[in-house]
Amino acid sequence: MLAAILVCGTCKRQTPIESKPQVVTLSPTEDASQFVNLAEAVPDVILEIRYYSTYNFVGARIDGYLEPTALLTRRAADSLRAVSDDLVQQGYRLKIYDAYRPQCAVDHFVRWAADVNDTLMRKYFYPDVDKSELFEREYIMAKSGHTRGSTVDLTLFDMATEKELDMGGTFDWFGHESHPDFGGNPETGEWKKGENITPEQFHNRMILREAMLRHGFKALDTEWWHFTLRDEPFQDTYFTFPVKKLD
Fold first, then answer.
1. Does the annotation count 223 as an active-site position?
2. Confidence at residue 5, expressed as pLDDT on a 0 to 100 scale
3. Tell me, what CATH number does 170's domain have?
4. Which residues make beta-bridge pairs with 65?
Protein backbone atom coordinates (compact mmCIF):
# COMPACT_ATOMS: atom_id res chain seq x y z
CA MET A 1 0.00 0.00 0.00
CA LEU A 2 1.41 3.43 -0.98
CA ALA A 3 1.54 6.20 1.61
CA ALA A 4 0.85 9.85 0.64
CA ILE A 5 2.53 12.92 2.19
CA LEU A 6 2.05 16.69 1.64
CA VAL A 7 5.22 18.58 0.68
CA CYS A 8 5.27 22.40 -0.10
CA GLY A 9 1.58 22.42 -0.89
CA THR A 10 2.02 19.73 -3.53
CA CYS A 11 0.82 16.19 -3.11
CA LYS A 12 3.64 13.80 -3.94
CA ARG A 13 3.89 10.03 -3.74
CA GLN A 14 6.37 8.59 -1.36
CA THR A 15 8.34 5.53 -2.44
CA PRO A 16 6.92 2.65 -0.44
CA ILE A 17 9.19 1.30 2.25
CA GLU A 18 9.98 -2.36 1.69
CA SER A 19 8.89 -4.52 4.58
CA LYS A 20 11.75 -6.38 6.19
CA PRO A 21 11.37 -10.07 6.93
CA GLN A 22 10.44 -10.61 10.52
CA VAL A 23 13.22 -12.15 12.57
CA VAL A 24 11.95 -14.74 15.02
CA THR A 25 14.15 -15.04 18.05
CA LEU A 26 13.91 -18.36 19.81
CA SER A 27 14.67 -18.82 23.45
CA PRO A 28 17.35 -21.43 24.07
CA THR A 29 14.75 -23.94 25.19
CA GLU A 30 12.78 -23.60 21.94
CA ASP A 31 15.80 -24.04 19.66
CA ALA A 32 15.83 -27.49 18.03
CA SER A 33 18.73 -26.72 15.68
CA GLN A 34 21.08 -29.13 17.46
CA PHE A 35 18.58 -32.00 17.34
CA VAL A 36 18.02 -34.63 14.66
CA ASN A 37 15.31 -37.08 13.64
CA LEU A 38 16.49 -40.28 15.28
CA ALA A 39 15.14 -42.61 12.60
CA GLU A 40 17.21 -40.75 9.99
CA ALA A 41 20.38 -40.57 12.08
CA VAL A 42 20.12 -44.24 13.11
CA PRO A 43 18.33 -45.98 10.21
CA ASP A 44 18.09 -49.41 11.85
CA VAL A 45 16.03 -48.31 14.86
CA ILE A 46 12.40 -49.30 15.38
CA LEU A 47 10.13 -46.66 16.89
CA GLU A 48 7.37 -47.44 19.36
CA ILE A 49 6.72 -44.04 20.89
CA ARG A 50 4.59 -44.91 23.88
CA TYR A 51 3.77 -41.34 24.90
CA TYR A 52 2.22 -40.62 21.51
CA SER A 53 -0.09 -43.59 22.06
CA THR A 54 -2.49 -44.34 24.90
CA TYR A 55 -0.55 -47.41 26.05
CA ASN A 56 1.48 -45.79 28.79
CA PHE A 57 1.12 -45.36 32.54
CA VAL A 58 -1.14 -42.32 32.09
CA GLY A 59 -3.44 -43.99 29.56
CA ALA A 60 -3.59 -40.99 27.20
CA ARG A 61 -1.43 -39.24 24.64
CA ILE A 62 1.03 -37.06 26.49
CA ASP A 63 1.23 -33.31 25.96
CA GLY A 64 3.89 -32.26 23.48
CA TYR A 65 3.93 -35.48 21.43
CA LEU A 66 2.54 -34.26 18.11
CA GLU A 67 3.93 -37.10 15.97
CA PRO A 68 5.09 -40.67 16.71
CA THR A 69 8.74 -39.85 16.17
CA ALA A 70 11.91 -39.55 18.23
CA LEU A 71 14.41 -36.71 18.48
CA LEU A 72 17.88 -36.58 20.02
CA THR A 73 20.77 -34.15 20.10
CA ARG A 74 23.21 -34.72 17.23
CA ARG A 75 25.92 -35.84 19.63
CA ALA A 76 23.71 -38.43 21.32
CA ALA A 77 22.38 -39.68 17.98
CA ASP A 78 25.91 -40.19 16.66
CA SER A 79 26.75 -42.30 19.69
CA LEU A 80 23.51 -44.25 19.38
CA ARG A 81 24.37 -44.98 15.75
CA ALA A 82 27.56 -46.65 17.00
CA VAL A 83 25.50 -48.69 19.47
CA SER A 84 23.11 -49.72 16.71
CA ASP A 85 25.90 -50.76 14.34
CA ASP A 86 27.47 -52.81 17.13
CA LEU A 87 24.22 -54.61 17.98
CA VAL A 88 23.21 -55.22 14.38
CA GLN A 89 26.41 -57.26 14.07
CA GLN A 90 25.11 -59.32 17.01
CA GLY A 91 21.71 -59.83 15.40
CA TYR A 92 19.71 -57.15 17.20
CA ARG A 93 18.02 -53.84 16.44
CA LEU A 94 17.21 -51.06 18.87
CA LYS A 95 13.57 -50.38 19.65
CA ILE A 96 12.99 -46.84 20.91
CA TYR A 97 10.22 -46.06 23.41
CA ASP A 98 11.16 -42.46 24.10
CA ALA A 99 14.00 -40.00 23.50
CA TYR A 100 13.76 -36.20 23.81
CA ARG A 101 10.79 -35.29 26.01
CA PRO A 102 9.50 -31.69 26.15
CA GLN A 103 8.96 -30.01 29.50
CA CYS A 104 5.19 -29.85 28.92
CA ALA A 105 5.16 -33.67 28.84
CA VAL A 106 6.89 -33.81 32.21
CA ASP A 107 4.37 -31.28 33.51
CA HIS A 108 1.60 -33.60 32.26
CA PHE A 109 3.10 -36.47 34.27
CA VAL A 110 3.20 -34.28 37.39
CA ARG A 111 -0.46 -33.26 37.03
CA TRP A 112 -1.45 -36.89 36.48
CA ALA A 113 0.48 -38.09 39.52
CA ALA A 114 -1.19 -35.46 41.70
CA ASP A 115 -4.62 -36.87 40.79
CA VAL A 116 -4.54 -39.96 43.01
CA ASN A 117 -7.97 -41.05 41.81
CA ASP A 118 -6.82 -41.58 38.21
CA THR A 119 -5.59 -45.17 38.29
CA LEU A 120 -6.70 -46.27 34.82
CA MET A 121 -3.40 -48.03 33.96
CA ARG A 122 -2.39 -49.16 37.42
CA LYS A 123 -2.65 -52.90 36.75
CA TYR A 124 -0.31 -52.59 33.77
CA PHE A 125 2.41 -50.36 35.22
CA TYR A 126 2.23 -49.97 39.01
CA PRO A 127 0.01 -52.64 40.63
CA ASP A 128 2.21 -52.86 43.72
CA VAL A 129 2.68 -49.14 44.31
CA ASP A 130 0.13 -46.75 45.79
CA LYS A 131 -0.20 -43.79 43.46
CA SER A 132 0.15 -41.37 46.38
CA GLU A 133 3.77 -42.56 46.73
CA LEU A 134 4.91 -41.83 43.15
CA PHE A 135 6.52 -38.49 44.05
CA GLU A 136 8.07 -39.79 47.25
CA ARG A 137 9.64 -42.74 45.45
CA GLU A 138 10.76 -40.44 42.61
CA TYR A 139 8.94 -42.35 39.90
CA ILE A 140 7.55 -38.95 38.91
CA MET A 141 9.68 -35.80 39.12
CA ALA A 142 9.29 -32.19 37.99
CA LYS A 143 12.44 -32.39 35.84
CA SER A 144 13.64 -35.17 33.55
CA GLY A 145 16.98 -35.84 31.88
CA HIS A 146 15.01 -36.62 28.74
CA THR A 147 14.17 -32.94 28.44
CA ARG A 148 17.86 -32.10 27.96
CA GLY A 149 17.74 -34.13 24.74
CA SER A 150 20.45 -36.78 25.19
CA THR A 151 18.55 -39.51 27.03
CA VAL A 152 16.83 -42.47 25.44
CA ASP A 153 14.54 -45.30 26.62
CA LEU A 154 14.95 -48.46 24.58
CA THR A 155 15.08 -52.23 24.33
CA LEU A 156 16.34 -54.87 21.90
CA PHE A 157 14.59 -56.50 18.97
CA ASP A 158 15.87 -59.94 17.92
CA MET A 159 16.16 -60.11 14.14
CA ALA A 160 16.18 -63.93 14.16
CA THR A 161 12.91 -64.38 16.07
CA GLU A 162 11.42 -61.03 14.94
CA LYS A 163 10.39 -60.34 18.54
CA GLU A 164 11.59 -58.14 21.37
CA LEU A 165 14.11 -59.77 23.64
CA ASP A 166 12.61 -60.90 26.94
CA MET A 167 13.98 -58.49 29.54
CA GLY A 168 12.04 -59.93 32.45
CA GLY A 169 10.04 -56.73 32.80
CA THR A 170 8.27 -54.06 30.81
CA PHE A 171 9.17 -50.47 30.00
CA ASP A 172 7.91 -47.96 32.59
CA TRP A 173 7.18 -50.58 35.22
CA PHE A 174 7.15 -48.83 38.61
CA GLY A 175 8.94 -51.29 40.86
CA HIS A 176 12.29 -52.72 41.92
CA GLU A 177 12.01 -55.30 39.12
CA SER A 178 13.04 -52.49 36.76
CA HIS A 179 16.36 -51.90 38.51
CA PRO A 180 19.40 -53.04 36.51
CA ASP A 181 20.67 -54.96 39.54
CA PHE A 182 17.44 -56.92 39.93
CA GLY A 183 18.53 -60.54 39.75
CA GLY A 184 22.20 -59.92 39.27
CA ASN A 185 25.27 -57.72 39.31
CA PRO A 186 25.29 -55.33 36.35
CA GLU A 187 28.96 -54.53 36.91
CA THR A 188 30.02 -58.13 36.37
CA GLY A 189 27.04 -59.33 34.33
CA GLU A 190 26.54 -62.20 36.78
CA TRP A 191 23.01 -63.47 37.43
CA LYS A 192 22.07 -64.40 40.99
CA LYS A 193 19.46 -66.88 42.04
CA GLY A 194 16.59 -65.87 44.27
CA GLU A 195 14.68 -63.17 42.39
CA ASN A 196 12.00 -63.58 39.76
CA ILE A 197 14.20 -63.18 36.70
CA THR A 198 15.81 -65.93 34.65
CA PRO A 199 19.49 -66.05 33.66
CA GLU A 200 18.45 -65.43 30.03
CA GLN A 201 16.36 -62.38 30.92
CA PHE A 202 19.17 -60.89 32.98
CA HIS A 203 21.68 -61.65 30.21
CA ASN A 204 19.45 -59.88 27.69
CA ARG A 205 19.47 -56.76 29.84
CA MET A 206 23.25 -56.95 29.97
CA ILE A 207 23.56 -57.14 26.16
CA LEU A 208 21.79 -53.79 25.92
CA ARG A 209 23.58 -52.24 28.88
CA GLU A 210 27.07 -53.24 27.81
CA ALA A 211 26.58 -51.95 24.27
CA MET A 212 25.27 -48.61 25.53
CA LEU A 213 28.10 -48.16 28.03
CA ARG A 214 30.67 -49.19 25.43
CA HIS A 215 29.63 -46.31 23.18
CA GLY A 216 29.46 -43.42 25.59
CA PHE A 217 26.20 -43.73 27.52
CA LYS A 218 25.65 -44.07 31.25
CA ALA A 219 22.95 -46.12 32.92
CA LEU A 220 20.32 -45.23 35.51
CA ASP A 221 20.21 -47.40 38.63
CA THR A 222 16.40 -47.64 38.67
CA GLU A 223 15.50 -48.36 35.02
CA TRP A 224 17.19 -50.98 32.82
CA TRP A 225 15.91 -49.24 29.65
CA HIS A 226 17.16 -45.69 30.42
CA PHE A 227 20.51 -44.30 29.23
CA THR A 228 22.01 -40.81 29.01
CA LEU A 229 25.00 -39.70 26.97
CA ARG A 230 27.90 -39.15 29.37
CA ASP A 231 29.12 -36.11 27.49
CA GLU A 232 25.68 -34.61 26.91
CA PRO A 233 25.86 -31.18 25.27
CA PHE A 234 23.06 -29.46 27.24
CA GLN A 235 23.54 -30.39 30.86
CA ASP A 236 21.47 -27.50 32.24
CA THR A 237 18.95 -26.80 29.47
CA TYR A 238 15.42 -28.19 29.61
CA PHE A 239 13.86 -27.82 26.15
CA THR A 240 10.24 -26.98 25.39
CA PHE A 241 9.70 -27.57 21.65
CA PRO A 242 7.25 -30.39 20.80
CA VAL A 243 8.07 -33.84 19.49
CA LYS A 244 7.48 -33.80 15.76
CA LYS A 245 9.58 -34.53 12.71
CA LEU A 246 12.20 -31.85 12.12
CA ASP A 247 12.48 -30.26 8.68
1. yes
2. 35
3. 3.30.1380.10
4. 243
